[in-house]
What we know:
four-stranded antiparallel beta sheet, mainly beta
Amino acid sequence: QVQLVESGGGLVQAGGSLRLSCVASRSIFSMNAMGWYRRAPGKQRELVAQFSSGDVANYADSVKGRFTISTDNAKNTVYLQMNSLKPEDTAVYYCNAKFRATGLTYWGQGTQVTVSS
Length: 117
């Protein structure tokens, strides 16, 4: 019963920035393992950023130092700020969350990010 809706994707030039948003139908506080994944054409889904235990953020090596995950609890929203974008960042980005009450994981429908040279 948790819905996740991503937005903020689009077309951007290399070196540019985008901020992705994931609006949850339930409180962020009610969920665990808030994170962002992506899938590029011909590749497996990969973890981009998530909050680890203790609410500490961690990142894939490929995005560390460029991407930042954050939350706005009042708006039930998780953000992914993406700076210094590279063409290899092109992918569909998915929000992921685990609902505390059920232990089930939920996925958004994805938002396309395309980075051109």
